[in-house]
Amino acid sequence: MNPDFPRDLIPRDDALHLIHALHAVKDKLHDAAQRWELLDENGQVPAGPSYTALLQHATDAQDLSQDVLRLAADFARSPHHTTRTGRTVLKHLASAATISSHAAPHFTETAENALALPRTANPSDRHYLTNRMVIDHASARAFLRRASESLRDAAEELDDHLGIQRFLAPLTRREGPPQPPPSGPGGLHR
To answer: HEC states along 34-85?
Structure first.
């Protein structure tokens, strides 16, 4: 067995803590991507989309992105990011941080177009703004979903790491010093 193997392990409690944090943020991203809808029940953009609600999507997306960035930064500061598993987890975290940061600007552009929509008289301009809103909002939601998937992948990597640790635990246990030979009648003969 590789003598560096024990140093390449992320302690179980640290991995479980990170898995829990990853799942919490992943679920928030996924839920936001599912809940924050622009289209009505008929699949149409409402006649007067709420600028306030759309701007709130942008604000909340920014907060979620900061949560992801904080997770990535905290893990990057830990000694675990240098392990083989840690490097892979950090790669997923960096990807999630980058992807999630793109959601808020798209939600903001959706809100900006919603604000301009009532003042637009030209049907062609109105059609363009409506389509732009749909595309920007869908893109923002897709960024949240993809960031959620990256966090899921990071958690799965840590789960796999813990599985390997459980499998190898009996092999890595150090036995104590050997027992001295028995002495007395049946023991050593002189």
So the answer is: HHCCCCCCCCCCCCCCCHHHHHHHHHHHHHHHHHHHHHHHHHHHCHHHHCHH
Backbone φ and ψ for 156, nearest 5 degrees, come out as -65, -40
- Sign of torsion over alpha carbons 97, 151, 40, 62: negative
Residue with tokens 């709130």: 56
Instruction: Give the residue from 54, 55, 42, 15 showing the smallest Cα distance to 158.
Output: 15
Per-residue pLDDT reduced to its tens digit, 170-186: 555 554 455 556 665 55
The pLDDT tens digits for 29-42 are 999 999 999 888 88
What does the pLDDT read at residue 52?
92
Q: The tokens 């923002």 sit on which residue?
A: 140
* Residue the block writes with tokens 């067995």: 1
Burial of 39 (0-12, 13-18, 19+ CB in 10 A): middle
Say how far apart CA 10 and CA 126 lie, in whole Å: 55
15: pLDDT confidence band, cut at 50, 70 and 90?
Answer: confident
* Tokens matching residue 155: 């958690």
What percentage of residues in the chain have a pLDDT greater than 90?
Answer: 60
- Helix orientation angle between 51-77 and 123-172, rounded to the nearest 10 degrees: 30
CB-CB contact of 25 with 67 (8 Å)? yes
pTM: 0.81
